Amino acid sequence: MISVDKNVPAASGVYGLSNASQWIYVGETANIHAELFNHLQHPNTFLREHIPSGFTYELSSEEYRAERRNQLVSELQPIGNRLVAGLSNWP
To answer: Is the pTM of this model over 0.85?
Structure first.
């Protein structure tokens, strides 16, 4: 979480969580810093089972965030996005 505090802006964009073998989740938000910090400090059941060891982010305006997230989900096939597709309890 120290890395998030030091390296991630409180800005609009998309982000990805991964471990050594796979992409876990790709999301979009108005505040990348807060969203990543929340995922890592208060992991849901899925993130407790698939523990992320890394993250990445890309700044993006609000109007393009969802489109970019969808593009990355299609390209990277993160396990979390596939498993929780259609569920409303995922952040």
So the answer is: yes
- Give Dmax (Cα) for the chain: 33
By the 10 Å C-beta count (0-12 exposed, 13-18 middle, 19+ buried), 16 is classed as buried
Which helix (H) or strand (E) is 77 found in, with range? Answer: none
Helices (DSSP H) in the chain: which residue ranges?
A: 2-7, 32-41, 45-49, 62-76, 79-83
Please report, in tens digits, the pLDDT of each residue of the chain (91 residues total).
668 888 899 999 999 999 999 999 999 999 999 999 999 898 888 899 999 999 999 999 999 999 999 999 999 999 999 887 655 444 4
CATH code of the domain in which 62 resides:
3.40.1440.10
Domain that holds residue 72: 2-83
**Strands across the sheet containing 23-29:** 23-29, 13-18, 54-59
